[in-house]
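To whoever picks this up:

The parser on our side crashed when reading a file containing two proteins. I've narrowed it down to the boundary between the first structure block and the second sequence. Both blocks are reproduced below exactly, byte for byte. First block:
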Amino acid sequence: MKTPYILTFVGILALALYSFTSEFQEEWVVPEKYVNMKNPTDPKVDLAIGKSLYNKHCKSCHGKEGYGDGPKADEMTGDLGDFSSAEYQAQTDGELFYKSTFGRDDMPEYTKKMPDDEDRWLIVNYMRTLGE
């Protein structure tokens, strides 16, 4: 007689745990090759181009100030990041380049929309200014 109650309890507990853990994204592991990659662009040069590219390709989700509050943010699942945070800014340029290039989940891959690597590096430079 206790078995149905125990099974019901276990089922509810499993569902609750699944719901809780599914809200969190897995850690975004960046290959070592990219972690140590050096940004070939000068962050003081062409910042206006980086800002323009950010506004065109990133602002709709990540927001004007990079808080993850753009007009499309509510449609996304997962954390869009806060580019002004110390945690975000602690990433290497190579890590940001990798994430901006290859994406995952709701973050699109940008190798086709922006085939020139330099454009993505310029966006990385602009995203650095959002932490200031």
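<<boundary where parser fails>>
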Amino acid sequence: MKTILFLGAAMFQIPPIVYAKQEGYRVITTDNQPQNPGHALADRSYHISTIDKEAILELAQKEQIDGILSFGSDVSVRTAAYVAEKLGLPSNSYQTVLVLTHKGRFRDLLQREGLQAQQFQQFNQESEQETIHSFIKDIAGKVVIKPVDVSGSKGVSIIQAEADWQAEVAEALERSFSKEIIIESYVEKAGKQICGDGYMEAGKLKFICYGDGYFYDDGIHLAPYAESFPSTQADEVLTRVGEKLERILQKANFHSGTFNFDVMLTTEGKIFVIEIGPRSGGNYLPVAIQLYTNVDLVAAAVETCIDTNYELEVAVKPSTFFYACYMLHARETGVLKEIKIDPQLLPHIFMYHPYTKIGEPVEPFVQANRAVGNMILRFQKKEEMLTIMSDIRELCQIVVKTENNS
């Protein structure tokens, strides 16, 4: 019996754990949240942070694992690659994963290989304030400030070049594990942002599924709150996206495995890659993609971590339905009072995964880990899906009790 160590046991990380158990694998889980539901499914669970590489390596040696998997998390995917490399387990190299999960190194790769040009510069907590301000002033228009090594829009802000930048820089530095940030020029998009998951096999793009990403336009709530499949971008655009993603992954020496991506079509008609995560997407994206395409990226993520010769079955049999993922979320701090679902939405709720109970605290959805829950929605017609998704925030309302309305 093969043993797999899963880094993380949150609700959205349960699908690969369930798959592994069904296939007869021995499952070990670990993270710093002992209440996470995935632990209850494991053969053995531990309370060890997934970013503690040396402690996870010691655990992996103790449990004599055959594979290690970080599902839907950029933070712990670095640990997974580190441990796999140390133990000679199937994985992309630690260096490859570092490049793809470090925003500064990723931008350096794109620039160095002539794949994408953009004004950007990396800073750390020792950087002079004058140097940072000088760079911000050199960029015309808006700038984006990001921690280099966290995901889910944590610590990310968009500001005007002459705005009050010190607080945003301080916040990004505080969020960063390495106390490093990247400041880059803002890029305007045309149409919906392109998101989804794909699979590389033996250094070539084997499968990819494109969807639409849904965002607020206020420059404050930057985390995507929904994805729908398929993408509404033109086929010609999506072809160019796939070609560019494959080139980037090849330059990064990403050999095999699932990956998540966020891409935009710029107002100049260019393909602009925001990021590529060397792991499956969160927000139940792989589940929705399997429902829509009949390609099982959950199984692929698990099998690839124990078998270097795994081959993904890609006989795509598109569903007659259309699917969307929605992250239930609040826009203010308080206590969850009620979830109001319009009767128009009820017939389309295919799966519902609550994260927060009534009476528990909630925070504004400025980062992905603040979701209240997740829904997978199903539609018979694409037009119906797009109409519902355009109104989704009104059709599913999160009522919060705050100090002002208590």
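After patching the parser it read the second block fine. The radius of gyration is 21 Å. The mean pLDDT is 94.
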